[in-house]
Predict the structure.
Amino acid sequence: MKKAFVVVMIALLLLPALFAGGKAEADAAKTVRVFGAFVDEEARRFEEAIKPFEERTGIKVIYEGSKDFETLIEVRVSGGNAPDIAGLPQPGLMNTFAKQGVLVPVWSKLEGLLNSNYAPVWKDLGSYGGTTYGVFHRVNAKSFVWYPKKAWDKAGYKVPTTWDELMRLQDQMVRDGVRPWAIGIEAGGATGWVGTDWVEDIMLRTAGPDVYDKWVSNELPFDAPEVKKAFDILEGIWLNDSYVYGGKNTILTSSFGDSVSPLFDNPPKAMMHRQGNFITGFFPDDIQANLEEEVGVFALPAIDPAFGIPVLGGGDQFVVFNDRPEVREFMEYLATWESGELWAKAGGALFPYLNQDLNAYPNAIERSLAEALVNAKVFRFDASDLMPAEVGAGTFWTGIVDWVNGRSTNQVLADIQKSWPR
Amino acid sequence: MKKVDESGSNSLISTSAVAFGRVAISILIPLIAFVVLWGGFIFLRDSNASQGVIAVVAIIWGVGGIALLFWVADYIVNKAPLNVAQKLQPFVFVGPALVILTWYLFLPTMRSLYLSFFDASSKNFVGLANYIYAFTDSKMLEAFGNNLLWIVLGTGGSVGFGLIIALLADRSNFEKVFKSIIFTPMAISFVGAGVIWRFIYAYKPMGEDQVGLLNAIVTFFGAEPKAWFTLQPWNNIFLVIILIWLQTGYAMVIISAALKGVPSAIIEAGRIDGASEFRVIRSIIIPYIFSTIVTVSTTIIILSLKIFDIVFTMTNGNYGTEVIASMQYKQMFRFYNYGRGSAIAIVLVIAVIPVMWYNLHQFRKREVF
């Protein structure tokens, strides 16, 4: 009995060898392994979007997504187990890998595609030290204000085209007995990021993209007057209890996904919500079903007209670790609108391609977002994603929390500046 | 004579053959075991098989591998002469535990100690800079202060309530029911408790339905709802209450068991001498179970020092609720500053060691070991 058990056990242990033998066979077909940060439904839509490529070329693309992407990719790269292609959500990560020399720079054909299909800003974001590594695919844009269309039209509000109009509209809403804004910054470990987005949007509109870039690299210190000015403008809206539904306590405790819900109460408790294109996924189901009828959206207006209406956003850039012909072919595919078209049709994603067909987007809202993104004269990456993690995912977030909870602007800015790693 | 000789040499040949075979087998078996385990490892590392297959293989490889290792080790030891075998036998049993402790506890601690003298990317030696940070940074000082509060209030609360409830339950007819109710939260994980208490402390603006229990009560009496987590410094106490809720049951059960051991003769003697109930508790019962109270306290002190989950799920260290462990997590996994993260971890280990030593010392006195 005992011997039989041992024999069975050894047999079971040897079993894997059979599968191990099958491995070489799988490698024979041309396979491209892609590792990224998006999972579940988004991963499914990505796989759907690249099917035409697989059918056309016979190359198999295996996508693997993980919520712990940022930790895992570093482990895998340093462990010599890098994927062929990785979708990096943060340019800082690309810089790190580029510095280590583990990335394959873009080749001339891909560079040609980048030049013809994208606005220059995307190539810059994918470059480090004058060499381009990254190709952007799906991106998001955040400088949008959402409103409940029916109630809005009923009240006779007009979409503001300038900052002054927006300010006047706020006061009119207060006179009409409704709060202008619904805001919430709670997001578990990432609490505060909604606030950093607002600050960044205001920085882009008051100080302009050049100052913004200096701010990101800390050439412009965090406690500089330009940053203080952005916080002052934010204070005028956020810390005025008559402008924000629920006041500062609701800003602090309401999670960013729930915070939009006062817009869809009947009658609405708040009229406006500034958030990226992805917020539609957090709308109540009945609103999502009739998105075009229920919801309106406009770009956050310019403050200084010299900078136009800048767009703040982010996106995953794909970089190459293993240079093989089929990997190159797939990267070239990702640089074309064709790779995004099916996903755009499915909804929930924006693409930066200059030659994209806006009609592919499933509704007027996403169409107008894509249009604003493609036409924006100034596009900037989310500053908190570009700053060192100690600040961008640390003191900038917590600084916003402390600031809303009563700490003075000067103290908060000094705290953040002090935390900047040297 | 000749016949005997023949059979003698025959048996000599056969014994040496058998001995040779035995040696060969005792080499071959570990070799096979090694090959099998290594093959499993390689498969798990490189395989393209479906996740289900990998999971099944991992389970078989892990559990079966341990059994195989034990069986092989036991087999080899039994081949040795009896007196050697007897000396080696204990190591077959305790060996795996020692190896695992070394590999998963001792070596990582040493590595953390090593890394704590290096910079964020673990490349450049920075001396004591990370420790200077750990003891001077304003957030770290806040964390030390809060941990102290956790230790004092968390331990005091849990042990105090545990003692009172144990004493009261001891005098009640429904002892089992009361104790079961108080003990139930022990079955809930810290993160689970966090989720439950989020609902208790939840905040909605005035005029909306209060989903939070506490605010529902507050608004029922006509007051404004409060955002409890943002009220510094009281929010720390709101968090400590969760620990007390979780740990009172543990303190109660242990203390209650000790109470049963207090000889009724002494208590009755006290009563006959005219001592009040309070006096009996203060002068007889508590001194009698004092070592138990100390043991329970030290256990909960260690828990309070390492407290992380509650803070992480409730406030994430915002609003002045940072604790040492949450600072370590942030430095390590949010900012990728391995130097600072390791230094904080070492500080935490050093803070826990004296309490741990005292705790084990107490256990030993009570002959648990």
User: Anything to note?
Assistant: The radius of gyration of chain A is 24 Å.
